Amino acid sequence: MFGFRDIEIIRSVVRYGGFRAASDATGLAQSAISRRIRHLEDRMGITIFERDGRGVRLSATGRRLVDEAEVLIAQRDRILSELTHGVMAGVVRLGVAETMTHTILPRMLTSLRQDHPLLRFEISVDTSDQMGQALRDDALDVVIMLRDQAPRGIALTPLPPVTMGWFVSPAHFTLPQPAEIDDLTALPIVSFPKTTSPHRQVIETLSPGRRKPATVHGSASLATVLHLVQQGFGIGTIPHSIVEAWPHAMLREIDVTPEARLPSLEFVICYDAERNEEIGRAVTQAAVAAGRE
């Protein structure tokens, strides 16, 4: 309905006190200024200036239009300044595996906020397979996920491995020291969701050649896993970093024989370089630095 040029012309009439003065200041013909404002009033169906024998003044509607337009002009000038001076701003759609929300994520975001204060983050916590699909569909910009589920053809950078352990609530279960696989499979086990590689690794560790198959329950929420183990539902396979972040759960790591030990989780941070090269590199650098701390 109106453009920035229309608003700038209206502002010049207000600033210089009339059409003639605005014409002298801007170099536009007075008739051109008058005609443009008249056409704008006709298009919008409003009266911007009230005219009388002493000149023109803004109507109540005109004052509101100018006030609101000042905000738009300020935003336009800010965007142009940021773009032309290389300022990183806007919304970053960030996907994060829950394991990383208690370790790398807070340090990473704090660093990014300090270096790029105009960035805003929309954070999604989900399973790696779901986030991988969202990255392919351009529903997420940057993702921290399990390496084996990262989409092909994207830029990825490894993050420090996340070590895993078996944990129990001592108030509910007592196991031999060290516990063997048969000792573990005798109890309910709570682990990652069935579709994930950590769940498959648990099954592969426990199942071959055993007299009794393991009963492994899956949960996409590590907080739920912690709570279930704490309440005595079973034992859990949990990252060490998560248990350290939740000391009030009062869980104890189970000492296990070598064949029952769990492999570390391999995480990567990834993005589509064609769509998100600049922000992807910035977030990756912050994540790698946070992983060293």
UniProtKB/TrEMBL annotation:
The entry's keywords: DNA-binding, Transcription, Transcription regulation
UniProt keyword Transcription present: yes
Limits of the HTH lysR-type domain: 2-59
Annotated TM spans: none
Stored CDD domains: PBP2_LTTR_substrate (cd05466)
UniProt xrefs under InterPro entries: LTTR, LysR_HTH_N, LysR_subst-bd, WH-like_DNA-bd_sf, WH_DNA-bd_sf
Top-level taxonomic group: Bacteria
Similarity annotation: Belongs to the LysR transcriptional regulatory family.
UniProt-recorded name of the protein: HTH lysR-type domain-containing protein
Provenance organism: Thioclava nitratireducens
